[in-house]
Amino acid sequence: MSITPWQPNPLDSQLIDLAFAEDLGLPYSDVTTMALFPNTNHNIGKASILSKHSEPIVICGLPIVQMIFEKLSDQCDVQSVFQDGEKLASGETLLLVTGPAQALLMAERTLLNFLQHLSAIATLTRRFVNQIEHTKTSILDTRKTLPGLRHLEKYAVYCGGGVNHRMGLYDAIMVKDTHIDLLGGIHHALDKLTSNATKNLPVIVEIRTQQELEVVLQKGLQKVTRVLLDNMSLELMQNCVAMCQQIMPTEASGNIHLNNVAAVAQTGVDFISIGRLTHSAGNVDLSMKCDFSDA
C-alpha cells in the first residue's frame, strides 16, 4: 500500500510521451524553435529552473525532468542543485541544464507542468505533516488523483512527508459505506469477508457510528486490519479511538483541512487520510531561464 522513495513506472514514460504529443504533435515539432535554431546539434544553450513562489516550496519531480530531457536529446546534461523532498526558497535555483537549444525549449512547458504540479502536492503535504508533528499520527493520501498521474502524485505525497494509502482497488480491501448500505448493514458486510477473499490483503472497514464499531470489534477481529472513522465529530472519534486502543489501528477521514488536522490527530488516531492533498494542491510558481548567447 506504499511506494518507496522513487520507483520508475512504465506509465511515467507513457505519460511523458502523451504530454509531448499534446504539446509538440506527432512527429515532435516546435515550429518556432526550429525556425530560430535550425541547427539541432550545434546550437547549445544553458537553462536554469528557479522558484518564483512567494514562500518556500518542497521540490518533487526531478526524475521526470531527467526522463524528459533523455527523450529529447542525448546531449542534455542535467545538474540538480536540490533533491526531491528538499525545501526551495524563492529565488533559489533548482537545477541547471546544458544542451541543444531545441531540446531545452521543447522541454520547457512540459517539465514545468510536471514540476509545478508535483511540487505543489509535496508542499501542501508538508504543511499538513508539520501541523501534526507533535503527535504519532501519519498523513495518508487517497485515490482522488488525476487519471494517469496517481503514481507520481503519490510519490509527491511521499516527498512531502506523507504516507501512501492503497494504490488502487487491487491492493487492499476497503469496505465503504456504499458497500455496507447495499448489503443491508455492517453485519452482512463482515459475513461476506471470507478468509479466501481477504487472504494476504489488508482489510479496512469504514464506520460511521459507535454501534458499527462495536460490531466490527465483535465480529471482525480476525478479518479487519484497520477501521476508518468517517466524518465523525471529535468527541465521537475520540471515543472510537479509545475502543480500538491496543486492538487495531484507526484512520480518520472526511472534511479534514489545515485548521482542524491537529485537533483530529490529538484524538489519537493512527492515520488521517486527506483527499485535498492531491485534488486541491494547485501549482507552485517555477520558471525556466535560458541563455543562448553561445547558440
TL;DR of this structure?
By secondary structure, the protein is an alpha/beta fold. It has 11 helices and 12 strands.
Q: What is the subunit arrangement here? A: single chain
What is the CATH level 1 assignment of the largest domain? Alpha Beta
Mean pLDDT: 93
Q: Would you count the extended β strands for me?
A: 12
Task: Give the name of the CATH superfamily of the largest domain.
Answer: Aldolase class I
Unreliable parts: none
Strand content: 15-25%
CATH hierarchy: architecture of the largest domain: Alpha-Beta Barrel
How would a textbook summarize the main sheet?
A: 6 strands, parallel
**Order of helical and strand elements:** HHEEHEEEHEHEHHEHEHEHEHE
Structure description:
- The chain is an alpha/beta fold and 295 residues long.
- It folds into 2 domains: 10-127 and 282-291, Aldehyde Oxidoreductase, domain 3, CATH 3.90.1170.20; 130-279, Aldolase class I (TIM Barrel, Alpha-Beta Barrel).
- Helix content is 40%, strand content 18%.
- It contains 11 helices and 12 strands.
- Strands 6-11-10-9-8-7 form a 6-stranded parallel sheet.
- α10 (261-265) links the parallel β10 and β11 (271-273).
- α7 (186-192) runs parallel beside α8 (210-219).
Write the layout of secondary structure elements.
Blueprint: H1 10-24, H2 31-36, E1 44-51, E2 57-58, H3 62-72, E3 77-80, E4 87-88, E5 93-100, H4 101-131, E6 138-140, H5 150-159, E7 173-175, H6 177-183, H7 186-192, E8 203-207, H8 210-219, E9 226-230, H9 234-244, E10 250-253, H10 261-265, E11 271-273, H11 276-279, E12 286-291
Helix pairs in contact: 1-4, 3-4, 4-5, 7-8, 8-9
